[in-house]
Amino acid sequence: MRLKDKVAMVTGGGRGIGETTCIRFAEEGAKVVVVDMNGEDIKSVVGKIKSFGGEATGMQVDVTDRVQVEKMVAETVKKYSKLDILVNNAGITADTKLVKMTEEQWDKVINVNLKGVFNCGQAAARVMSEQGYGVILNASSIVGIYGNFGQTNYAATKWGVIGMAKTWAKELGSKGIRVNAVAPGFIMTPMTEKMPEKVLDMMKEKSPLKTLGYPEDIANAYVYLASDEAKFITGAVLSVDGGVVL
């Protein structure tokens, strides 16, 4: 087991890539803290992990709320006496073209995707610095590298979390903390499954592999970067996108 006895916290862990990451971490021996806004989703993921003998606990947290985030980290440390891994996976979209984007759409996405990552990263880094070790992984996107039509706010945040990862890698490396980002491409999630077949085919054509990725592909990348197999990797952006170039 590559993450045996590690304590891993995954934000946005209730569905999609976050859910699969929680399950994969547990399969690799980690004690998983499932963080999400939706209590029913949390209960479902925790139940799935426990069904195969894994260990998990759930916390209903708004990552934009610093008080809630600090309490979340404190309770995790109180329960497990440490925090080894943080996956900053929580994120939202509010897509529209630049000229039509409202201030509310901009602020909402910035708050969750950027401020939320900052809040969680800062709280975790303080604990990890005292421990002298830890891993922080930020969920970026190919949109954060190449941009995408109608996603000014989302692209800004996903580029921003790459900047955070690189900066934190420089600041925290001397404390034994590694920080990396993962940039998924087009992934088949419950959200994309609702898209018209024509749109899905177009997305597949953008990849040299002519296929979409799956949550497991991203979760496996997180497992690798969180494990000791990646002990000499920090400040990197791992693109898991099937070779997509926009």
TrEMBL record:
- Which class of enzymes does this protein belong to? oxidoreductase
Q: What is its EC number?
A: 1.1.1.100
Ranges for domain Ketoreductase: 6-185
Q: Can you supply a Gene Ontology BP term from the record? A: fatty acid biosynthetic process
The entry marks the following residues as binding NADP(+), namely G12, G13, G14, R15, N89, Y154, A155, A156, T157, K158, I187
Q: Which GO terms describe its molecular function?
A: 3-oxoacyl-[acyl-carrier-protein] reductase (NADPH) activity; NAD binding; quinone binding
Sorted alphabetically, which SUPFAM superfamilies does this protein's record hold? NAD(P)-binding Rossmann-fold domains
Q: Membrane-spanning residues where?
A: none
Assembly and binders: Homotetramer.
The entry's family comment says: Belongs to the short-chain dehydrogenases/reductases (SDR) family.
Q: Which PANTHER family match?
A: (3R)-3-HYDROXYACYL-COA DEHYDROGENASE, SHORT-CHAIN DEHYDROGENASES/REDUCTASES FAMILY MEMBER
Q: What is this protein called?
A: 3-oxoacyl-[acyl-carrier-protein] reductase
What is the source species?
Geosporobacter ferrireducens
